[in-house]
Amino acid sequence: MADVLTPGGADEPKELVPLKPLGKVMAITSGKGGVGKTFVSANLAAALAKRGHRVLVLDADLGLANLDVVLNLYPKITLHDVFTGKAKIEEAIIKAPGGFSVLLAGSGMVEYSRLTTEVRDDFLRIMSGLVPHYDIVLLDTGAGISDVVLFAVSLASEVIVVATPEPTSLTDAYATIKVLVGQQKRSTIRMVVNQAARMGDGRAITTQLQQVLDRFVSTDPAKPIRLIHMGDIPADQSVRQAIMRRQLMMQSTPGCPAAMAIAQLAMRFEETVMVRKPAN
Ligand SMILES: Nc1ncnc2c1ncn2[C@@H]1O[C@H](COP(=O)(O)OP(=O)(O)O)[C@@H](O)[C@H]1O
Ligand SMILES: [Mg+2]
């Protein structure tokens, strides 16, 4: 793995050429870790599947993958085997309890947590082949602004930043958004506020972040950056209980407040992201 695309490698550092994001792909990311990306990815996927969509969740948190734990799935074949040429992509895709498909990273993927040309090419090849088979693909990415996270996000047409109302989560969300705007020229970022104490928290937080962006990041009035608040998910004991029992919350407690919030979120995504007017 000599061909690392970061400055300081043995060779001339290569430019990270921006890729054209793939349609129908939503990256679920965050500034800070542990805010609920995997929980949101899995349960939103289940809610969208229940609404009749063909959904694939790809575990793109290569270093700290834990979608397998949340879904209680331990497949023999993972993305790692696809990357190493030991298996075909179709063999690594499995059905999750919520009626959606998953592509799990596997522990071997930790070797790929440095971005090399091979990783980029393999990822892009795998993704391009998969996307046409689904109505929507969710990328459960890692947190922060490492090369791998930013690359995974760059593949997506839509970015969802998950944040909690904690000040540290918000400052980290701001830092991530700033990089996404600067490096990927994103002008629309969607926000989901998880572990909200009160409904309405998320809207207030999004407005606050928007003001800071307008002041310090959106310097060109012709190119405004828009944060779109997609919804709040309350802090709910059922989330932890479901994870402890290795069950999908949408299945184990579909009537709990967090599940109802996710169901609403799914409707909102359906209305705003999945139904697109043709570009003019
Ligand atoms: N809405 C919520 N209410 C209560 N606990 C939550 C909620 N969302 C997430 N958690 C807790 O946070 C932990 C981390 O969530 P996870 O999805 O693994 O985060 P990430 O993928 O961002 O690292 C979960 O194991 C769960 O215990
Ligand atoms: Mg995670």
Layout of secondary structure:
Blueprint: E1 22-30, H1 37-50, E2 55-60, H2 67-71, H3 79-83, H4 89-92, E3 93-95, E4 101-103, H5 117-130, E5 136-143, H6 147-154, E6 156-163, H7 167-184, E7 188-196, H8 201-216, E8 226-234, H9 237-244, H10 249-252, H11 257-274
Parallel strand pairs: 1-5, 1-6, 2-4, 2-5, 6-7, 7-8
Antiparallel strand pairs: 3-4
Helix pairs in contact: 1-11
This protein binds adenosine-5'-diphosphate (ADP) and magnesium ion (MG).
The site of magnesium ion has 5 residues, from helix 1.
Task: Explain what this protein looks like in three dimensions.
Keywords: ATP-binding, Nucleotide-binding. This is MinD/ParA family protein. It comes from Rhodoferax aquaticus. Residues 24-174 form the AAA domain. GO terms for molecular function: ATP binding; ATP hydrolysis activity. By secondary structure, this protein is of the alpha/beta class. The chain has a single domain (29-273), classed as 3-Layer(aba) Sandwich (Rossmann fold). Helices cover 41% and strands 20% of the residues. It has helices at 37-50, 67-71, 79-83, 89-92, 117-130, 147-154, 167-184, 201-216, 237-244, 249-252, 257-274; strands spanning 22-30, 55-60, 93-95, 101-103, 136-143, 156-163, 188-196, 226-234. An eight-stranded mixed sheet has the order 3-4-2-5-1-6-7-8, with helices on both faces. Strand 7, helix 8 (201-216) and strand 8 form a beta-alpha-beta unit. Helix 1 (37-50) packs across helix 11 (257-274). It is globular and about 50 Å long. The N and C termini lie far apart (43 Å). Mean pLDDT is 87; it is low at 1-16. The structure holds adenosine-5'-diphosphate and magnesium ion. Adenosine-5'-diphosphate binds at residues 30, 33-39, 66, 194-195, 233, 235-236, 239-240, 243, 258.
